[in-house]
Amino acid sequence: MSSLLPLKPTPQTASDRSLEPRLVDFEDESAEQIISAVSSTTARRILSQIYAEPTTASEIATELNSSVQNISYHLDRLQDADLVAVVETWYSEQGREMDVYAPTNSALVLFAGAERTSPSLKTALSRVFGSVGIVGAVSVLAHIRRSVPIPVSSPRAGASPVQQPDPIMWETLGTFATGPGGVVLGIGIFLILLFFVAWYWGTYRPARNHAHSA
């Protein structure tokens, strides 16, 4: 792209600004305004240009071989739909201020059917409990396989056999917790919770926030 601006600074991209995707349901009030703003080919080309690199109306006009007035008209509509925003100001060779436009999100997704497309907390929790059950079964098997029975000395001739007391529940749980089964269970539950927390904060919460704010 040939630049109209001398020594212009390097603009920050969407990833540099740590933006997140925007999810918009077709039934949301903002969906109609967004669809209207990007209904023309020129508007969509402008938006694609800004996603590729934040820039000014003059540079977009040069790139798309259009007038600055036409580009500014579509930029105003894209701003009203909260798809782009002015992030900084550059100066032309004549010293005139020029607004730099950038996307307000890393991606725009229009969807229908929120129950089918949005992440489900209920489904995730059911998978967590299912995984805990599997880890529990594996830990019990590990405990049984690695447990060594305590040898009991044979009674002397004529002596009554020694009755070994049955272990109480707390003794059994203590033996399991300090044995290989407890180690497997503890590590498994820790990893499951770690993955769940990462999914919740990295996927579920951002998606819900964007769906509610759209």
From TrEMBL:
The organism's superkingdom is given as: Archaea
**Sorted UniProt keywords:** DNA-binding, Membrane, Plasmid, Transcription, Transcription regulation, Transmembrane, Transmembrane helix
Q: Where is the HTH arsR-type domain?
A: 33-117
Gene Ontology molecular function: DNA binding; DNA-binding transcription factor activity
Its name, as the record gives it, is: ArsR family transcriptional regulator
SUPFAM superfamilies reported in the protein's UniProt record: Winged helix' DNA-binding domain (SSF46785)
Q: Which SMART domains match?
A: HTH_ARSR
Give the organism, scientific name.
Haloarcula marismortui (strain ATCC 43049 / DSM 3752 / JCM 8966 / VKM B-1809)
Is Transmembrane found in the keyword set?
yes
Gene3D superfamilies referenced in this protein's UniProt entry, alphabetically: Winged helix-like DNA-binding domain superfamily/Winged helix DNA-binding domain
- Residues annotated as transmembrane: 183-202
